[in-house]
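Handout, section 3.2

Students often ask what a structure token actually looks like in practice. Rather than define it abstractly, here is a full record for VWFA domain-containing protein. The first block is the sequence as you would receive it.
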Amino acid sequence: MRVRYLLVCLLVVKHVVQQNAQEISGDILANELNKVADSVGWSFLQNEYNKMRYQETRLDGKKQVREIAGKIGGRMIKVDNALKKLKEAVEEDQLSSIEAPQDCCVDRNYQENIRFRTQVSEEEICYSKPSYVIPENLKFPSSKVLAVMKSNLDVKHLQFQYIGLNSGLYINYPATKLTDCDTYDPRFRPFYVSTTTTIPRDVVVVLETSSAMRGDKLFEAKHAVITVMETLGIEDRFGLIVFNDDVKTLKECYENQLVPVTSATTKSFRDFLTSQVGEGGTDFTAALRKAFMFFKANMSAEKNNRDNILLFVSAGEHQNEKGNPLEVIREENEALQNRVVINTFGIGTGLNSDDKELLRNMAEQTLNNNSYGYVKSGKTTFFPNNKGTSLREAMGTYYDYFSVPISLSPTYTQLYKDFFSNESIITGCLPIAFNGAFSGVVCADILISELVAEILYLQQEEFSYAFIMDGEERTLVHPLLPDPRDVEAKEQDINNIYNFETSGDSQQSLNAVFYWTPIIAPGSNFSLCIVTEQNNIVRNIESIPQPSQGDFLYHRWDLNQWPAPFCRHFNRYATQEKSTVKLSPDAFIEAYSYTGVKETEVRVKQYKDYLSGDIFTNPGLKVSAVKSIRLTYPIEKFWTTTSREEAPYLVWRYVMTENGVTRVYPGVRLTDDYDYKLRPWYHRTVSQKTVNVVSAPYEDSWGSGRVISLTKTILQGGTNPDRKLEAVIGTDFSIFYFNQMLEDRYPICAARSNYSCILIDNSGFLVMHPFFIETTSSINSQIHLTYKEGRISRLLIEKGIMYRQPCRDTGNKKEQFTYRVKLPDSLLSGIVDSKEGYQLRPVPGSNLFLILKQRRMLDEESCCNSEHSTSPNSIQCSVEECTCLCYKDLSFNECKNEYVSTRGFVPCSPQLPTLRSVSTPEKDKTKNLPTCFPTDCACRKTESDCFRTSGCSWCTSDKDGNVGDGFCDLKEICPSQQCLKDDCSVKSRGSECYPTVSEPVNVWLYIGVSVAVVASVIIFIVFAVFIFRKIRQNSTDDTYLDAAHDFDMTNKPPLDCEDYNTAPNYYLAELSATSEESINTKAS
């Protein structure tokens, strides 16, 4: 009863205090964020680096580009040597074994393999063949070939090796389970076809669609045409003509030119084929003239250095009155020096002898004269029984009828996604010959992330980067292309260098130097370019700090001994005693030697012994990484003492250095491929140096619930204003703690029925919003202001404070629109709009803006109705000013695979890659362990006290969502303030934790005291307002609100009646009806 009466009293006081809205100040929150940053050790660690002396060195771009190109070229030479070994073994073996190996399409008990990202057997090969290949007389490689394939595994960047034969047989190593074996034919794949010529091909298919082709004939012919497209490589071009009485092609740019086979053109051709039906008669001559027009159009624009192939498919019912096809072929091809080779295919039983003779003569070009150029005869094939697979095989191997050169250098495919890992690879192949005749290919897949590891882990500084392109100006690796390690990115064939290096408008101009050099290796036409800022200076710490006992505890608990006490930090196995360190490839002199290599106990011991000074042989660590390990070690003591005592609400504490060192507390194990440089929060922090960068809320994957991150850069020591990055320090804390802190520092935020306090970052994404507190659903993505606050969004857009920021999404041919939030020079201190009932204030020294909004009837109206997790690529922009994150289509020439214009567009930053991470289960290790944080959650009787420790959560509803009296419990039991257990009840009312002496309660006494308190507060407020107004008349207007932290503690309610939402004695200003006129001072 006593508690109830006093809470009523306090609610009355609170109501009186908040009759008028206060003008909020971002300075208050800025001060709190600075406290958080210092609680995690920002000032402490920055001071450590400030003590260091630095030596400046000018970057030698010429030397660096030569070194990196030499390493990449050396790996390509290893690929060439591996392929030549395999080629020699196969040609010597001549497929001598009649014993069939394992069938690739039969399930076997294969073992999971980290290197190949799937289940394999490195002890055997497997085979597959399409269903139309006759199994009789098939022969297979012997054990000698298998031995060579095994030895090639020493080449670290090689993946699967395989043999494709001209019989359609396919051999794969290591053995694994494949799919689509009945239809997979290696002869139709670009890796195979690319070895059959030394120059590119122009291929035109002429397909009859008359009534004679109805039904299965047309269906199978369409399938065969698609197969022809699939054979073409990155330098080949394609054209398609369908005809009956009329000749039809795709419209627009497809009508008069051959086009490269890309994802866009392939889709257009497929759609065009699908729409065709068999009807009408035939006109061979018109179709042939159109086909030769394609060849002429492309030859007029370039030198003749391409094979020209025409594939003609017909049911054979030519109408003679429309002209002689042989005369058309003579006339058109002689104008092209007889360069075009014609293969003809006759389908069905309707072909009479005259039809067959005509098709043969067309292939042999019987009327053509060699005096105009040597006539190359093609081949004619008939399919009287309409065997579609035979037509597909014949058309798909059109190249088989030409002289196949036996190249001594490998050919390489375009970049594509590996079936198993979905990482980017290229395939290198060499042709094989039996008895001097082309018989197939030997190939190997090459993992791009391993081939170009130096580029991915290049110490880029802030304005340096590298890329690789080939001799046809196609880009293999570039910062604006999807990362080759990304397992979720789609294949991108818009890769011309002009899309990335001549991208129109730039937001920042720098004097840059381009360092070029070729990558020298057999079959390579690649070049490497490193771009650096002119006069690029690198500053390195002069001396190496001395090792300290225990400064390096590696994160792998399975490979080195961790010190006790051990504990359970949410769902992670941890040590309270120490921080743990992880090394990414950036920490090593040769990043290539680290990536994809399984760590061992021996290797970890080498790290430890070298860092402690017990051995002098460097296990490959950069000197700068060694310095970072030792320089960040002192913060461990700060974390385990000061930080833990003063900021128990912090969930994780971590520092990530620019040279690949991660230190985290409590000490836990990270995933082996964890790389903080591939995380959005790291990029946001680096791009906003010197400020506190606060993230949008997210669900912590390590079990600590809904959290917010605060991160800040550690810069090089000294007074240079252009100091470069040394590290990023950060911490996570509960969003519910953050909300309580806001309501404590801004009491008006606690009046949730009348006001909403909202935090947004400088891109307009919500950092704090009532939705985050009220929802029990997981937060799986960032939410933009436009999705939740339509009224505020429109007002900010009208004032030009929030504006759309465009960029070009190169791969998707779209102009994306996101938002930026920036106050104009005239409103740097923020805005107060009394009419609309909202304020917006910058939070100095951070990426945040604080909004105080008065709730109104139409507040729920948003700018868009789509799901808030939708990306800008999913919603087309409307004509409204306030829209979702959206896109507009860009003008793109599919036929040339290039944008109509690159001027006026800034490319979007590529999506950060998603890696194929494998976590080690720790459930058995955490069982029965104590928690790393205090376990007295049940003794914390108020919501504010509950959230002041990282491991506790305030439960407001049970498992079924029924709201009840709040109580404090472990966060794992009550994440997002909803209990997950069947027994959801108060575990302790506090008497066990804080025993008190029970005394009789005089209710009337409390009522009297309460009335007196209310009266005193009213008198105090009147007096304070009077004094405040007198001050405003005689001093500079200061619209920022500062908390009076020295209020009288003697009047504080008893401990068991403490309410976190009770306002301290802040001095509150009235919200003026003309509030904007007084917003002028303390701008920052």
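Discussion prompt for tutorial groups: The two ends are 49 Å apart (CA to CA). How would you have guessed this from the sequence alone?
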